[in-house]
Design a protein that fits this description.
- The protein is mainly α.
- It has 2 domains: 104 residues; 135 residues.
- The protein has 12 helices and 4 strands; from the N terminus they run αααααββαααααβααβ.
- Helix 1 runs antiparallel to helix 5, helix 9 packs across helix 10 and helix 9 packs across helix 11.
Length: 268
């Protein structure tokens, strides 16, 4: 979590956050709320109240005294840690989608890697919808690979460009795994699929030096894409890194090129 002081959340925003996290049917349990508040050193001032009001009262009192919203982000980070949702991924994505609707008004987003990111701040809900339509239009106009739209679902596109590109890199890894039956990821996946004396996949005839060099260059391109967008330490502190639209479109083009070359690759 960044050490930058965050402005307090408005009571209306905080109320929505608490209702999402402490929802009666799918939210935190009472014991979890108490435990997580204790973890971030916030007093549980009304444990007898309904869950969301209990959480709201604790967080709003802290904000009123300390005049900052950092602890709200800390609570979100603990409550939505991805490892807690290994067996209920759909629930995690649903919570992320709802929470990020609120955080977008503060120029922030919490993603499924357990980190906060800086995004372009929105001022109303229609801006979020326009962002989705605009990005979809830009993708279609560039005649990009169909897999990009399949992996970058609407609930991801309406948040920020970084997350959309991150999902695009996942589509590259998934395509390689399907063609090779490998189960690894990242550099290991690329090395086993495209490099070594006997690569599993080849993007050309792989006979003369120029073809072998092209194959190695393609593998290095994939490693560069993975390293930039999937390495959890590549952009520390991540919360301050904002991917702009123009860069996102260029990166989508690179991802699209990569997917097409993988589509046309052959088993060696």
């Amino acid at each position: 979590m960044s050490d930058i002081t965050r402005n307090p959340f408005k009571p209306s925003d905080l109320e929505i956050i608490c209702k999402i996290l402490a929802d009666t049917n799918s939210g935190l349990s009472g014991s979890e709320i108490g435990h997580f508040l204790n973890q971030i050193d916030i007093k549980d001032i009304s444990p007898e109240m309904t869950k969301w009001k209990r959480l709201y009262n604790a967080l709003v009192e802290y904000q009123n005294i300390n005049k900052k919203g950092n602890k709200v982000l800390s609570f979100i980070s603990i409550a939505l840690q991805p490892t807690r949702y290994i067996k209920s991924k759909d629930l995690l994505y649903d919570k992320l989608y709802q929470i990020n609707q609120v955080l977008a008004f503060h120029g922030l987003e919490f993603q499924d890697d357990g980190e906060f990111y800086k995004v372009t701040k929105i001022n109303n809900l229609s801006e979020a919808e326009k962002r989705v339509d605009k990005l979809k239009s830009l993708i279609n106009n560039r005649n990009l690979h169909n897999d990009l739209l399949q992996f970058c679902r609407a609930e991801l596109l309406d948040k920020n460009y970084f997350h959309a590109v991150l999902e695009a890199t996942k589509s590259i890894a998934e395509k390689i795994r399907k063609k090779t039956n490998l189960t690894c990821d990242g550099s290991e996946l690329i090395d086993k699929a495209f490099l070594g004396d006997n690569p599993i996949l080849v993007i050309n005839n792989y006979k003369v030096d120029s073809e072998i060099s092209e194959q190695k260059g393609f593998a290095n391109l994939l490693k560069g894409i993975f390293g930039m967008f999937r390495n959890p330490t590549a952009h520390s502190p991540k919360i301050e890194w904002d991917l702009q639209e123009e860069d996102a479109m260029d990166l989508f083009s690179i991802a699209s090129l990569s997917l097409r070359r993988i589509d046309n690759s052959k088993l060696k």
